[in-house]
Design a protein that fits this description.
By secondary structure, this protein is mostly helical. The protein has one domain: Cytochrome Bc1 Complex, Chain D, domain 2, CATH 1.10.760. The protein contains five helices and no strands. It is globular. The C terminus is likely disordered.
């Protein structure tokens, strides 16, 4: 069992590093932007979700079926009931420490990256789509 966990940690590190490298390789091709910091955060947010979360939660965040052992499947981030049931602090804890079948990412992601992942998950809430982001969106 420990060797499987070690392999999983190495895989997660490789995926996160690949996402970071993909984001770095496109810096010279993009036109100048007035809000480049926000746009870079959006790109990193999307890359992180795509490379770390989407494998289980789907590219659209709709989750997945139960595993073969009958454990619940990955959460559906587009479900308003899920969004209401989890605080940002609970999302942070799940990302950092793992939750049921979900691996822990606290050792491989920075606080800023986890903040971006929480922001992305919150952005999948259908009740927030089309609404302007609130000033307290980044606060737990």
């Amino acid at each position: 069992m420990p060797s499987r966990r070690a392999v999983l940690r190495v895989l997660v590190v490789v995926v996160v590093l690949a996402a970071a490298l993909l984001g770095c390789g496109k810096g010279g091709d993009s036109p100048p932007q007035n809000n480049s910091n926000n746009n870079n955060n959006n790109k990193e947010e999307e890359n992180l979700f795509h490379n770390v979360c989407a494998r289980c939660h789907g590219l659209d965040g709709t989750g997945g079926p139960p595993d073969p052992l009958g454990n619940p499947g990955p959460k559906n981030f587009t479900d308003p009931a899920f969004q209401r049931s989890m605080t940002d602090a609970q999302l942070r804890s799940a990302i950092e420490n793992g939750n049921r079948g979900m691996p822990a990412f606290g050792a491989v992601l920075t606080k800023a990256q986890i903040d971006l992942m929480i922001k992305h998950v919150r952005g999948l809430d259908p009740s927030r789509r089309g609404a302007a982001p609130s000033a307290s969106a980044g606060s737990p």
